[in-house]
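re: ur question from earlier - yeah i can do the single chain one, its not a big deal. heres the input i used so u can compare w yours
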Amino acid sequence: MARMQSKKHRRLLDFGKPPGSAPSHLTPQGPSRAPPEDPTLDMETASSVPKGGLAKIKRFFHRKIQSHQTTATERAHTNTDVGPQEQMEQSPAPGTEDTQRPADETQSPPASAAVGQDVEAAVKAFDDINPISRIGCSVISVIDDANTQFTEIENFSDTYLKPFKVFNEIVTTLSNVHPYAKIALGILSAASNLLISQVNRDAAVSSLLNKIRNTYEFLAEDDTIKNIENMKDTLAMIARVISDSAQFIKDYSETKSFWERMGKNILSETQTIADGHIKTLDDLMQQYRDRTIRNIHINVTRVFEDLNLDGMAYAGGAGLNTTKRCLDGTRTEILQQIIGWITSRDVDVPRILWLHGQAGRGKSAIAHTIASWVKEVGAIGSCFCFVRDRQSEHREEKMFTTIARDLAGRDPAFRRALASTLAEDHTLKATPDVAQQWQRLILEPLSKAKGAIVGNVVVVIDALDESGADESRRHILSLLTSTEAASLPANFRILLTSRALPDIEYVLGNSRHALKTCLDDVPLESAERDIRLFVTKEIGHLEGIGSTEINQIAEKANGLFEWARLACEFVRPRRAGHTVKERFDNVVTLQYGEGKTLLDATYISILESGVPTSPVPLSRFRSVMRQLLTVMEPLPMKTLNLIRTQFPGEDDSYDISVILEFMAPVLSGISDHSTPVRPLHASFYDFLTDRSRSGAYFVDISDS
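and the output i got, formated as tokens:
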């Protein structure tokens, strides 16, 4: 009897091993049963399993979990030398572990928690087995010896997940890296934490999980770390693919259910997506090793259920504009500061950062750079921009619905939560009530999706000061400084830019829940260095422009990037009569003062060089600019000319290009007639509509 019992004890269940590992050698229970030559399932034998077998297995594992948790609890109560954080035996929810622990405790869940999760995963796997395999059959008779397999699971966690943990440890030591690389590293760290806490053992995705594991081993190599600065673009692409892959693995059970409802071949669909991610990761790692930049197409594969978001208000044209990004290598200090805030693991970090400063300091360039980086590395985010010449659209009434749609388009968990809310109340899709939008379309879905989002969620709101009158943003400011905003999930960030208008400064300046950063306080040396880089790129190739001239423009700009841009536009040879050097001399000798700023002086100089102050040209200038500034939305030159044919006065029937062709430095749509004509910077609008600043070029729109 004892001999038979010891034989039984040698038969173990082969779960919890890395994919592809060989099964345990099974000893037959009696002389009449030989070991199978083929490890595939014997379906006929499997179907004859006693009905009570699974129940026994489940009861054992449930007792094992409870025992493990009880032991952990007793240790926490009896160990008086450890702090509350160290007593936590269960890992935090995915997406929050980075911020709920000190930096040295965020790398991985405790071993006991990892084992508990694996056992729970095994129990769940048993729930889905039908019919049970021959291996499962044999376990019923030896259930009391599963402690050995329990140890194997623990060893699996230590070995299989080691690359993720090692990478996280390395990331915490990296400080002097490009901010673009830093945000990519943040995404990779978040994805690794998700994979540590939610290892999916489904064989269908094991090949993808193995490739991700290999990728993290590669990222932890010394040679890879040394070349992060030079290969930051490739690193960002790797982060994007890893983020998508981790999201796919995390949502795999929901995805399978969706495919099943759609009547799709689950294995085929899974293999197609996994193979695509695997090939792309292989290509990107090889590109990194070769230190080359090739055009590798990243096929973003995110599986979304066909949830009804149709009819949701959306502000078209209010999103990211990559042409506004900072020149690479400029604004590094402020970008580092913002990325550091975004990737901070401190749970108490303010969720909102207000970036402000006078017109021309480069606020929008910084905002679009951050938004672009967030999108490129595969993070979840949204970019919403206000523009003065689109105030008639009342974008403020669509801000939160647009942001919600953007987030739903990037994350399946948020999308499901949002669809659930809209299913309860369809009127929310088009409500102009920003308070309802904020509560039901942002806060509520975030709460439901808490812990299910990979990495940080970054929302950029640019140029809030251009929304319109104070009333247009009063409710938005109130919501963003509310206690609910202060309690947003720890991985949620809102970057908001504006000039410090009185109403905005009063609310955000006095908020304890918002960080404040003023670009007017950026050291002049730093701004001049960045402006020199910009001017060199723009006009450094022109004859007569050398380092002396570039330095003069940088010093004259006094930290105003918009003025530097205008100066470069002015110097370029755009009309006959003056050499590049003569135009340069004109711009650097501009005089200003007595209430006029350098920007004002530059605008006047540009207008004087293209629009004489004699009666006819000046009258036509005012007429054309009045038309531009008062249309409901910006229009291309061809359409503007067509509208003028309907003007009643005979004096108004002329081609507006006679005025606009000289105004390329301050207006878009001049060289490309299909592009809407609009001021390139809001400060030009302000200049034209203020008589004390524009003088003869004042445009009166008071009765429009």
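Residues 1-65, 67-156 have pLDDT under 50 and may be disordered. not sure if urs matches, ping me
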